[in-house]
Structure formats: C-alpha cells, structure tokens
C-alpha cells in the first residue's frame, strides 16, 4: 500500500512504497498509483500535473484537495461530478453567497463528502477567492509560489509530502483568509496542477508539468 498521499492519491492505490514506475498491460510505464485502477489511469494520464486555467478551475482543485484530506482520492474522483453540481461549477461568487441553509443542503447530499468543517471551509475559501481578486486573483496567487524544478523522484518513497513552497503557500493562503489549506494539502494541489512535477523518473508523463 502507498505510505503517503500523492496528489491526493491515498493508501487505497494498491502499490508498495519505495518502488519505481510500473508497466501496464498497454506497455506504458506509469507511477504505481496511476496504474492501479482504470479511474486512476485516466486521471494520471490526462490530468495529474497538467496546468489548469481560470479562477473556477483553481478553486475546484483547492476545494477537492481539502475534501480529500484523510480520504481516498478515488472517492473524490468518483464524486467530482456531483461536487461540481452542488458547488455551482465552483463559481466563486455563487459559492461565496451560500448561507446556513446551503450548508444544511450540502450536509444532506450523499453525492459528496458530508463533512461540516470541510463544507464550511469551501464557502470560506470561495469568499476569500473573491477578495483575492484585488491582489490579482487566485490563479496568479497560487502560481507565484511555483518553485524551481527539482530532480525527478526515482521511487515512490522519494516523492515529498510537503515542501518549502507548499508551506509558504499554505501560510499565505491562511493569511488571506483561506481555511483547510495545510502544507500537505497544498503540496498535493501543487502536484495536481503542475506547479511541481512529481511523476517518477521513467513514467511516461514525467516532464509534462
């Protein structure tokens, strides 16, 4: 089992820590977690480490990474369509306007992760995103913390769970009013949207971030 979270991918990935890329039935080498299920293969090959564009896309990834904390990333991927529906496509203005009744509505929705602290944090973060427009917006803010590229991890155990950049981003977001944005969660966000490239050396997606 994976001993750490890789871009939101938790211990359900079905691979050992400390191993290199694995070659699937299609002959393609992937990070071990990215070869462990059809859903993970699709996410690994088309999304993980790929830059997204726009405020809503960045708010979505930040929100979903926060909801994933302590859970399987596969759970989040399977519930993502419903998350997008109930959070208005992660339109910051719409979510920022949510009130107590919306919190209760979300807490009653079995299609998402029903955690009150995370639901309330998502609304808090939407409001902080709106306020952040005065400083250039969420996308530019996050990308201002992009670190210099590091060496390619060779084994799964070489992939960090935090970094100085994720710690700095976490502190800055908290100062800007965001919640549930710890350094581990922010490192997962940075991996997911391509600020850092944590695909293993030998993985066919290495270098695409």
Automatic annotation (TrEMBL):
Pfam families in the record: Adenine_glyco
Annotated positions binding Zn(2+): 31, 44, 199, 203
Keywords for the protein's UniProt record, in alphabetical order: Metal-binding, Zinc
Protein's UniProt keywords contain Iron-sulfur: no
GO biological process, one term: base-excision repair
Keyword hit for Metal-binding: yes
Sample GO molecular function, one term: DNA-3-methyladenine glycosylase activity
InterPro entries in the cross-refs: Adenine_glyco (IPR005019), DNA-3mA_glycosylase (IPR052891), DNA_glycosylase (IPR011257)
Record-annotated membrane-spanning stretches: none
Protein name (Swiss-Prot/TrEMBL): DNA-3-methyladenine glycosylase I
Organism per entry: Nocardioides exalbidus
């Amino acid at each position: 089992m994976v001993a750490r979270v890789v871009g939101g991918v938790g211990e359900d990935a079905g691979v050992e820590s400390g191993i290199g890329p694995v070659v699937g039935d299609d002959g393609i080498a992937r990070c071990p977690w990215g070869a462990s299920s059809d859903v993970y293969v699709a996410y690994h090959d088309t999304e993980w480490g790929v830059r997204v564009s726009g405020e809503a896309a960045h708010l979505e990834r930040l929100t979903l990474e926060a909801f994933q904390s302590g859970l399987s990333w596969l759970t989040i991927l399977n519930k993502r369509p419903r998350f997008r529906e109930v959070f208005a496509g992660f339109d910051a203005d719409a979510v920022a306007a949510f009130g107590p009744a919306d919190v209760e509505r979300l807490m009653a929705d079995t299609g998402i992760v029903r955690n009150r602290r995370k639901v309330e944090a998502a609304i808090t973060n939407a409001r902080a995103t709106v306020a952040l427009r005065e400083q250039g917006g969420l996308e530019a803010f996050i990308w201002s913390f992009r670190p210099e590229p590091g060496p390619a991890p060779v084994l799964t155990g070489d992939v960090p769970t935090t970094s100085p950049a994720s710690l700095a981003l976490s502190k800055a977001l908290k100062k800007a009013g965001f919640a549930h944005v710890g350094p581990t969660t922010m490192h997962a966000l940075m991996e997911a949207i391509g600020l850092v490239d944590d695909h293993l050396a030998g993985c066919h997606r290495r270098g695409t971030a």
